[in-house]
Each structure stands twice: as structure tokens, then as C-alpha cells.
Amino acid sequence: MLAKHTLAGVLNLEENHLKELSRSSWHERTLHAIRKCRTKALGGHLDWCKSCDKLHLQFNSCRNRHCPTCQGHKQQQWIEGRSRELLPVPYFHVVFTLPDNLNSVALQYPKELYKILFDSAWKTLVAFGNNPKDLGAKIGMIAVLHTWGQNLSLHPHLHCIVPKGGITKAGYWKEGKNKDDFLFSIKALSVKFRGVFVAELRKTIPNLPQSLYDKLFKHKWVIYAKPPFGNPKNVLEYLGRYTHKIAISNHRIQAIDKQKGTVTFRVKNYKKGGQVSNLTLKTKEFIRRFQQHILPKGFTRIRHYGILSSSWKKEKLPRLQMLLADKEKDCIDVIITKEKSVHRCCPICKKPGLVTLIIFDSRGPPKNYKELVISKVKKHIL
């Protein structure tokens, strides 16, 4: 179901002011790309359905990873790829959160700080995983960076998926025995994570004031963990919610008031049990907040580590899956019941196999497009 209001609609209200509102030229390019998504400005293509013989005019998407209109197909593709890589073992969901004292650093040095966040979370887990007292095995992790809170404030944190166990030096699977909500003690993990992060921060950004470090050690850091997922299917459901999620979806935008220049969107208050309310902001303030979550150019926000890394997937993952073959049926069931993608499906008969007949730019289809359509359709029929 299409959303009544969109992020592009908000940006269009401030089209003439996006340059002055933008924090950088990269931000400006991103905002304009989202604004033009699925409009004549980006050109389009004419598709033909072989099943029902209907023609469909489609405008091109911007393909920007911050655009709420473009993420559904990419999300489905990513999930399908991961479904073949799942292990038939319990998985944990753990969240590493940075304190708000670091928000100013995140705005000034986003690439450096977010890399430190990824590296520190993994180094912390590896330190516990390698320790024979805790596990004594090589572990794995898939981490997804989120930078926002429900009200679009800056709130950097990592959502991580971690298998309950690891591979010993002898090449065998060793399951974690901790009875808590995670493989290791959350309290010990939090202390270690803070120490590793601060050490990496000092080394990477040496010009930060000592007063900042004093504040970082003043309070406990937050690591949140849920009990293990019931089966691999639950893991995929989690991945689907988080991997290609952006700061705000179109469906959360409840109203756009052009006269007042305001945006109203839905927010959840997790401190009050997920209570839902509406928040109204001036369009300029809304855009300012949204920009905080535009990642640096080329920055990777989904990363794989250890036994879930790309090198392991190619060589050692199949062997590990066979080693755990007694539970392999769970993974097969997940692949069979995966959600069917609607990408390149006819919007009328819902069948796949659309054929692109004409591609055009912002000037529109060529004058003789009808003749071109007829000749190309005849080729496919014959």
C-alpha cells in the first residue's frame, strides 16, 4: 500500500533551500536524489507484460540507500542471500549503543567514529570468545549500523546477530553454555567495550579534549541482549526489519502542512512500553535531523565478521553446515517459505517477467515510441 505522504514530499517543500540547509555537497546530492525518486526528472522506461499484454510506464528510482522508496527490493535480495548462509543453531540479538556525549564527534567525524564502533564491538566479542573460560572458540557476527532514534535524533548503535557458539581450533562446533541472555556476561562485556572503544578513539582522533573522556567513564555504557531466537526463520525476520531500514519510512509521515511548513510523523516511546504518539516539526528542522543519518560516501553499514565473514562463506561455511546437518532442515524450510519478491512483476496480473521496451531520460519517450513499441513486441511474440 502506497504511503499518503513521503519524505520526497517534505524535501520538495524546501527544494529551493536544500543547498543552504545541507551540511555538505554529499548531503545535498542525497536530498535531491530522494526528492526526484520515481519522477520524470530521473527518466524512466516502458515495460510490457508478456502474460496480460499490458504496457506500464515506470519512472526510475534514485537507488539511494537513504531513500525510503528504494529499500524494499534490496532488502529482499539481501535476505535471500543470507538464508543460504544460516547455521541451524540459536542466534542472539545484541545491541551496542554509544552514549550521547559522542554525538558531536559523530557529526564532525562520522566515518571515523562509526568505524571505531564496528571495530570495538567485534574486538570485544572476540576477546571473550577466544577466552577458554568464556567459550574458547572462533565466533561470528553480522552487524548493522543505525544512527537514529524515533524522533530522528542522533543515536548511533549497532544491531548485531551472533550465533550461540563458535568453531574450535580442531574445527568442531562448540556451543555457548552461558545461561544468561547472551553468550557472555553483559556487565563484563559493557566494561570491556567501553575500554576498547575509548582506546581506539584516542588513537584515531587524538585531538579530542580530556573532558570528553572524563564524561565517557563517568557512566556505565549500555549493551542490550535478547534471549536466543527460536530458529533460523526468526533470524531472517529480524534481518528483514533492520538491514535496509532507514531513519524514517514514508508510512510514518502522518501529515505535511504546506501553509505552516510543518511535518507530523509517528514516533514510539520505548521507555513507555512502545507508546505511539505524533511529533510535529518545522520542515527545516525535520530535514536537519534527517541529514544527521546520511552516512559518509561509500561507508559500509552492514558488516560480517568471523565465521560469518565472506572468506568463511566461500570455503568453510558449507563444511560447517554439514557438521550441523542434523538441524539443516530448519534452514531449508526458511528458504522454501521466504517472501516472494514483487520486483519486476506486472502490477496488474502480478506475474514476473516484465520486458523493458524503451528507456528514456527526463525529456520523455521519443516521438516515434509507438512504432518502436509495436516492432519490439512483435519480436518477442515471434
Order of helix and strand elements from N to C terminus:
HHHEEHEHHEEEEHHEHEEEHEHHHEH
Q: Largest sheet, if any? A: 5 strands, antiparallel
- Count the helices. How many? 14
Main structural class: alpha+beta
* DSSP summary, beta strand count: 13
Q: Residue share in helices?
A: 25-40%
Report the end-to-end length measured between terminal Cα atoms: 37 Å
Are there runs of 5+ residues with pLDDT below 50, and where?
327-339
CA radius of gyration is: 24 Å
Question: What's this, in brief?
Answer:
This protein has 14 helices and 13 strands. With 382 residues, the protein is α+β, with helices and mostly antiparallel strands.
Describe this structure in words.
This protein is 38% helix and 21% strand. It is of the alpha+beta class. The strands form 4 sheets. Strands 8-3-5-4-12 form a 5-stranded antiparallel sheet, sandwiched between helices. Strands 2-1-13 form a 3-stranded antiparallel sheet, covered by helices on one side. The protein has a 3-stranded antiparallel sheet with strand order 9-10-11.
Characteristics:
alpha+beta, three-stranded antiparallel β-sheet, 14 helices, single chain, 13 strands, globular, five-stranded antiparallel β-sheet, 382 residues
Q: Secondary-structure blueprint of this entry?
A:
Elements: H1 7-13, H2 18-21, H3 25-36, E1 44-49, E2 55-59, H4 71-83, E3 91-97, H5 103-108, H6 110-130, E4 140-148, E5 154-163, E6 165-167, E7 173-175, H7 186-204, H8 210-216, E8 223-225, H9 232-242, E9 253-257, E10 262-269, E11 275-282, H10 283-291, E12 302-306, H11 310-315, H12 317-323, H13 328-336, E13 354-360, H14 369-381
Antiparallel strand pairs: 1-2, 1-13, 3-5, 3-8, 4-5, 4-12, 6-7, 9-10, 10-11
